[in-house]
């Protein structure tokens, strides 16, 4: 795939979860973006669909992660592919 993990995560947040793109920065905590548990679950599913990386094991701590952390996790399995 030619699309990088950062673009994928930012696109999911902005387009699917309707987060204001101006609020999406690598150092922003997902809790700050006010994503409820359903939105977090949707983020995990969409990342798996787009990257093949399963973040289901991270669901309980997702709200404590930054956007940059999620990008790193989403990209972690893409290098192996």
Through-space gap between termini: 9 Å
Outline? globular
Total number of strands: 0
- Portion of residues in beta strands equals under 5%
Number of helical regions: 3
Descriptive key words:
single chain; 81 residues; mainly alpha; 46% helix
Describe what this molecule looks like in 3D.
- The protein has 81 residues and is mainly α.
- The chain is 46% helix and 0% strand.
- It contains three helices and no strands.
- The protein has helices at residues 5-16, 37-51, 67-76.
- Helix 1 (5-16) packs across helix 2 (37-51) and helix 1 (5-16) packs across helix 3 (67-76).
- It is globular and about 25 Å long.
In short:
This protein is mostly helical and 81 residues long. Helix content is 46%, strand content 0%.
Note the topology.
Elements: H1 5-16, H2 37-51, H3 67-76
């Amino acid at each position: 795939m030619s699309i990088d993990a950062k673009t994928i995560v930012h696109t999911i947040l902005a387009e699917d979860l309707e987060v204001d793109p101006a609020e999406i920065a690598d150092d922003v905590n997902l809790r700050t973006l006010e994503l409820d548990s359903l939105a977090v679950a949707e983020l995990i599913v969409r990342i798996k669909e787009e990257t093949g990386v399963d973040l289901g094991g991270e669901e309980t701590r997702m709200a404590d992660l930054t956007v940059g952390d999620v990008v790193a996790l989403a990209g972690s399995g893409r290098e192996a592919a």
